[in-house]
Write a structure and sequence with these properties.
The protein has 259 residues and is of the alpha+beta class. 51% of the residues lie in helices and 13% in strands.
Length: 259
């Protein structure tokens, strides 16, 4: 009886109609959100910095807070290392295409062609790897880049790695090195020129990129041994080849110990 009485009382109290929650249309919702945004304090917009890159002074525009993700730029802004007529910073010795890749990474966390991991076998590939090299709106997906200061073509990921080292972007260095390891069919002269470039643009304390080239040459020693370019490079000498000698000795010692 109590339950019946409650149901009967509730029914009479609602006059036979159920009370439905009030629905808000999309337009009303938008109008309310707009009103809230007008009443809330304005969000401070990061200043736009003009970055002047290379000998041809190619111009890039980027938000200061995005550039500040690099300790290099953060220090420049903190020390007001900007040019007079506006928020500008000059990088006359850097390559514009390489800097473009670094800037894309700062905004997106990767640069074209992007790195893709396949869930089925956990393998890594590059975006559009099945297509032939092309240049489009998103930039070049070629593995190599021409750098006048290097005297020819070098591996693009090596150039990016070196610039990331200068800008103190360790995650970008790891990304560039992983991408570089996915390329195949690179000519011996390009590899050796890239190795020299890596040695010239990284400190002696840097080990990952340099070790990558030493290991690559040792693994492919039969190809390099037959190369006239390798002979010419060795005759010119340099720290690269002393490190290669040490790495070869260590490799031989490891083999002897295993036996």
């Amino acid at each position: 009886m109590d339950k019946m009485f409650k149901r009967s009382f509730a029914s009479k109290d609602r006059a036979g109609k159920s009370v439905k929650p009030i629905k808000t249309t999309y337009r009303e919702h938008t109008k309310r959100k707009l009103q809230e945004s007008l009443e809330s304090p304005p969000v401070e917009i990061s200043p736009i910095i003009t970055v002047i890159v290379g000998r041809d002074q190619r111009l890039f525009a980027a938000h200061q807070d995005v550039l500040s993700r690099s300790p290099f730029f953060a220090a420049a802004f903190k020390n007001q290392f900007l040019e007079g007529s506006g928020p500008k910073i000059a990088l006359p010795d850097e390559d514009p295409e390489t800097f473009s890749c670094v800037l894309e990474y700062l905004y997106k966390g990767d640069y074209y062609p992007c790195l893709i991991q396949h869930k089925r076998n956990a393998a890594w590939t590059l975006e559009d790897a099945q297509d032939s090299p092309k240049i489009g709106g998103r930039g070049s997906d070629s593995a190599i880049i021409y750098l006048p200061e290097a005297g020819g073509e070098v591996l693009r990921d090596t150039a990016i790695y070196c610039l990331a080292d200068k800008f103190e972007l360790d995650e970008l260095k790891r990304l560039a090195l992983r991408k570089q390891g996915l390329h195949t069919g690179i000519q011996v002269d390009v590899i050796l020129r890239s190795a020299r470039y890596a040695y010239a643009h990284t400190p002696d304390t840097e080990s990952r990129l340099r070790a990558h080239y030493l290991a690559l040459i040792i693994r492919s020693r039969k190809t390099f041994k037959r190369s006239g370019t390798m002979q010419m490079e060795m005759e010119e000498g340099g720290k690269l080849f002393f490190d290669l000698f040490v790495a070869m000795c260590n490799h031989i010692d490891d083999i002897v110990e295993i036996r």
